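Troubleshooting: if your tokenizer reports a length mismatch, compare your output against this known-good record of 105 residues.
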Amino acid sequence: METLSVAGKPIELDSDGHLAHRADWTENVARELAVQEGISDLTPQHWAVINFMRSVFEKEGDAPSIRRLTKESGVDTKTLYQLFPKGPAKRAAKIAGLPKPKGCI
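Known-good structure output:
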């Protein structure tokens, strides 16, 4: 299993690079995961999507799909792809400390 080091603390990742243990997630972990995904700075729009995803996951047990993100997060499709290139739902879920959404390849 791969690990990520944040502030000297090892964080386990699963085979897809998502957190192995959701309890390990912090905003600092999110920032480090974002850097690994090529996103150097998390803007307020990034955080809006991340927090929306975490909220949905807490209520429903699964991360929202890209379709739901565009309809309910307040961020349109074009912007989502600019914020999280090459797979917004999967990349945002990873940074949010969530498992890969169902339906993502």
